[in-house]
User: Which sequence fits this backbone?
């Protein structure tokens, strides 16, 4: 039974897949309650550390208090006080405690300092933002403006965020923007791709290592968590993190300290974590590939970015945005070479199904800028597979029509499943066809497809395509 009645931890409530309400959980601490020198502090993070040294969230000048004395941890529905071993102890109602649930209004005694704890809840309706921009992210669809509405509230907090979405939907740019719109914007934003580093090196990359702790560790090195101190760490492809390493990450999140490989000393870190994955983490938990406790600890705020196919009304705005951003579209004096897209070009871009999402759109606009001969982008400046007019690549669309599961089969499925089935079959055939044409050369095939090589590889993995098959 939660101690705080109907209150809930910081979370977004979804109804029919749409974000409806945002519960922001905060904790208020009164230091020296009732005394003239009473001090009030409000926190939105899920661990609040208390001690005498400056890296604590609550710094207390009291010689009976330890350097890192105790911490208050937000559990799913409750707050828990943890004192793992301070010298003079933490007391509630005169009883020394190591771990205890905190009820609202309760006073804890830390050394000779009293602290009163009260949870504070803010419930807000998620309303689509009026703005079509959040930092460097643009979007006018309701789905995107709803996300902007959430971000306006949660970016300034320290809440951990998990961003889910297909490849190229903008997960990294969202993470960076959340950091830039937070109070941590002056501190480092560190990116780590859990899928790009060999498993054996991930621990030392993230947490650092001591000299000689393993073959090749010739110097002591700080890990990325220490480097991100005061700022944000972005863990991309979190779903790739092995089950062995997941408890180590959980430990850092819960205890807010890291231990370098080969060291038995912990270093406190103050880092906001934003993680992204193109897998559905809930399904990964059900399949036993992702730890449930880590999932709950991380997904304080969980955002799902819609694919570009689901928000085609954003395409004109995105095209305009990229025309203004891309270096290739700038003349000697910084003027834009292509200023706009013609209605026919926009219509073609809107009809296409965008397996590579926004990243693929960026590539297409970039390519069109180098093809365009006037200041308006025309359908001729777009790749044939987008306008549906080209010779061989036209076959990608035909292939999808021909090889996709039969229409009769598809109409038996719910719309969403049928659509996914159809797109998946298109992706598989398209990639296979291009690889065949380029004798298994991924660079050439991805260039012809006009999609990023990294994304091309991901599609190969997704569909179990190996160049040996070609
Ligand atoms: N809404 C948006 N507004 C402006 N630019 C965007 C938007 N969404 C994505 N982009 C741009 O699209 C490109 C791809 O985005 P990003 O790399 O963030 O995707 P991702 O989901 O992290 O991809 P991956 O899963 O492959 O790592 C970037 O150039 C990014 O700036």
Assistant:
């Amino acid at each position: 039974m939660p101690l705080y009645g109907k209150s809930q931890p910081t979370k977004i409530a979804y109804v029919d897949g749409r974000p409806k309400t945002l519960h922001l959980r905060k904790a208020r601490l009164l230091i020296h309650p009732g005394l003239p020198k009473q001090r009030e502090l409000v926190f939105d993070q899920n661990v609040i550390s208390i001690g005498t040294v400056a890296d604590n969230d609550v710094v207390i000048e009291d010689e009976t208090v330890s350097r890192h004395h105790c911490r208050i941890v937000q559990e799913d529905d409750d707050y828990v006080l943890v004192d793992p071993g301070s010298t003079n102890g933490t007391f509630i109602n005169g009883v020394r405690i190591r771990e205890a649930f905190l009820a609202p209004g309760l006073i804890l005694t830390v050394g000779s300092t009293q602290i009163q704890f009260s949870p504070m809840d803010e419930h807000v309706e998620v309303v689509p933002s009026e703005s079509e921009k959040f930092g460097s992210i643009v979007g006018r669809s309701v789905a995107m403006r709803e996300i902007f509405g959430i971000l306006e509230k949660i970016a300034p907090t320290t809440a951990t965020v998990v961003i889910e979405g297909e490849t190229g939907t903008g997960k990294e740019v969202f993470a960076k923007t959340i950091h830039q719109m937070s109070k941590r914007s002056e501190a480092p934003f560190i990116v780590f791709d859990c899928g790009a580093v060999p498993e054996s090196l991930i621990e030392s990359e993230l947490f650092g290592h001591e000299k000689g702790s393993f073959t090749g560790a010739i110097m002591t090195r700080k890990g990325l968590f220490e480097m991100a101190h005061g700022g944000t760490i972005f863990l991309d492809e979190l779903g790739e993190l092995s089950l062995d390493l997941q408890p180590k990450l959980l430990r850092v999140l819960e205890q807010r300290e890291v231990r370098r490989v080969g060291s038995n000393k912990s270093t406190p870190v103050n880092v906001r974590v934003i993680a992204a994955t193109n897998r559905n983490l809930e399904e990964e938990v059900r399949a036993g590939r992702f730890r449930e406790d880590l999932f709950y600890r991380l997904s304080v705020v969980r955002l799902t970015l819609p694919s570009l196919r689901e928000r085609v009304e954003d395409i004109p705005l995105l095209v305009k945005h990229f025309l203004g951003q891309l270096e290739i579209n700038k003349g000697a004096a910084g003027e834009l070479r292509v200023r706009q897209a013609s209605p026919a070009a926009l219509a073609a871009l809107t009809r296409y199904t965008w397996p590579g999402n926004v990243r693929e759109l960026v590539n297409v606009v970039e390519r069109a800028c180098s093809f365009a001969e006037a200041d308006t982008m025309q359908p001729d400046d777009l790749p044939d597979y987008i306008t549906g007019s080209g010779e061989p690549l036209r076959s990608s669309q035909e292939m999808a029509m021909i090889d996709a599961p039969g229409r009769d089969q598809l109409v038996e499925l719910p719309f969403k499943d049928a659509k996914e089935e159809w797109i998946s079959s298109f992706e598989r055939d398209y990639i296979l066809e291009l690889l065949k044409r380029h004798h298994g050369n991924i660079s050439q095939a991805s260039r012809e497809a006009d999609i990023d090589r990294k994304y091309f590889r991901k599609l190969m993995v997704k569909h179990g395509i190996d160049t040996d098959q070609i």
